[in-house]
Amino acid sequence: MKNEEHVKQTIGELKKMGIKIFIDDFGTGYSSFSYLNTYKLDGLKIDKSFIRNISAQSENASITSAMIKMAQLLNMEIIAEGVETLEELEFLREHGCHHVQGYFFGKPVCAGEFEKRLREKEN
Hints:
This protein has 6 helices and 4 strands; from the N terminus they run αβαβααβαβα. The chain has 123 residues and is an alpha/beta fold. The protein has a single domain, classed as TIM Barrel (Alpha-Beta Barrel). The radius of gyration is 16 Å and the shape is globular. The termini are far apart.
């Protein structure tokens, strides 16, 4: 991120290939609101620390709903990571989150196991 012009050019080339660009772990670490203006991003990936216990922690609920609303106003997609409960999933659906991922749907598996499960669903 030190060479802004190079990053912009690289993002542009990736987008020409049909690759969508998201800010990962938005709200923590090195993610910055300035990136929303600087780079042509497709969306935000909300960090799991905001999703965890969302129904019990009103601060997480407020921050997450604000991030979703902001992304919607900027015509960006939203991915919430770390969804582990039905309550978390329902909260995200109610607030218009586009995509979710987490252990609620399944734990990570190797490529071979994933292929096996996919083939079982096809049959």
